[in-house]
Amino acid sequence: RIAALFEAPSLREIVAALAADDSDFAAKAHKEIARNSPLSMACALEIIRRNKCEAGGIGTALELEYRFSHRAMSEGDFLEGVRAAVIDKDRAPRWQHGLEAPLDEAAARMLAPLGPETLTLESERNGL
Length: 128
Fold this sequence. Notes:
With 128 residues, this protein is mainly alpha-helical. It has helices spanning 2-6, 11-20, 24-34, 38-53, 57-71, 78-87, 104-110, 123-126.
């Protein structure tokens, strides 16, 4: 059941599959997903997809995570999540996008190469 519900390539399709399924598992998963930033979840799915398809190893995986982290505050929903959970404590974040929004382009922007800010794993740069 997990594979069937989560095999779709986009967050929007996963949410639709969960909403269409009448199991307790699907209802609980949908409720949990609804709490999180749609943009962050779409980026996580894209990172997983790219790591499955590309043969770059741990370096590629770390680079994708770094790209997301580099942009999380300025372009993502990180600050809104902090506001809702820590500052105002209203637990009512106002995410940039809804769960039903097509997020492929937004996720691609978050995970785009960083140019001169690219993560390098060279020992000289890291002082190792």
